[in-house]
Amino acid sequence: xxxxxxxxxxxxxxxxxxxxxxxxxxxxxxxxxxxxxxxxxxxxxxxxxxxxxxxxxxxxxxxxxxxxxxxxxxxxxxxxxxxxxxxxxxxxxxxxxxxxxxxxxxxxxxxxxxxxxxxxxxxxxxxxxxxxxxxxxxxxxxxxxxxxxxxxxxxxxxxxxxxxxxxxxxxxxxxxxxxxxxxxxxxxxxxxxxxxxxxxxxxxxxxxxxxxxxxxxxxxxx
Length: 222
Description:
Layout: E1 4-11, H1 19-37, E2 41-48, H2 53-62, H3 67-78, E3 81-89, E4 92-93, H4 95-102, E5 113-119, H5 128-139, E6 143-144, E7 149-151, H6 159-178, H7 180-188, H8 211-216
């Protein structure tokens, strides 16, 4: 039985054209092709973070989520798979990229498969994906695929990049097909620790009548 999966591409590239966006698009096209070969379809949505820069800053400084940012958050919530691509500046993923994921609800990406990708002007930054980006998504309790993508200037004409794209996207397709994130939410969501107000109000097992919660809301513990 064929299925239609929703793939969300998050690109933090700031130039036009952007090498970060080019790498993300190459991976997204391969995901769609692989899914089609396996009898499924992919609906792709793109979140271009440069268009949300002001909205992300507003959320960081005032906790106000604008309608544009809320649309991006909703898209991620509906995603069966995610491609997250960032440019690397000064040995780290761009601040725009990390800020976006820092303002998300901590429960939003639990169990969701994510393909991590980065671009840089030198191969010296190749480990940023595994050393920094992977730990960020581990904190968010997402499920990064084993193969990470990185492209420096010398990689674009190298067939090895195409091979890595093929391997990483196949891993992502398999995880999307497994329905892991959906089954986890349906069958084991209550076993995770959720913060008050997280998960769109669907958190479980928070005892608001405890002494600690009464103190947190300005009441008395006695």
